From TrEMBL:
The gene is PLEST003846. Transmembrane segments: none annotated. Keywords: Electron transport, Membrane, Mitochondrion, Mitochondrion inner membrane, Respiratory chain, Transport. The keyword Transport applies. One of its GO terms (biological process) is response to oxidative stress. This is NADH dehydrogenase [ubiquinone] 1 alpha subcomplex subunit 12. Coiled coil: none annotated. It is a peripheral membrane protein. It comes from Pleodorina starrii. Its main location: mitochondrion.
Amino acid sequence: MSISGYIGRLLDVSGKKSLGAFLGSWEFGKMLVDGNLAHNVLFRGPSGNLVGTDYHGNKYYENNTHTYSRRRWVVYADKFDYNVTSVPPEWHGWLNYINDYNPTQHQFKKPMYQIEAYITRTGTQKCYNPKGSWFNSEKRNWKKYEAWKPEQQA
């Protein structure tokens, strides 16, 4: 691949219109710090074929010239705050070689109890905080027990 083709694929993956805009972006600055993000966007993203995009906006790539188990990868839509729980179950199966069905071309049967996959809130301000937690606004009654008082008979 020529250098101009490589830069074109890099800009396509990053969503920027010019190389100057990419080098001056926060995304590039984060890539200097986050090695996983830099590797996926700079090296793997442009070298693979785009297979599809899920409803969270994540892009899935495949390159069959790489070694086995490193042929498929995801470039997350939110590059600053990416979360692995944003990968839907059908794409998870494809990424981890559980199945070879491309979710954009195959309709999976869904169990009647299945709900749409969502990004978990663990580690954020919206996570579950039980009563007594520092971040829960609802205060807890810290009494260990309350003595039983029988009704008074007249």
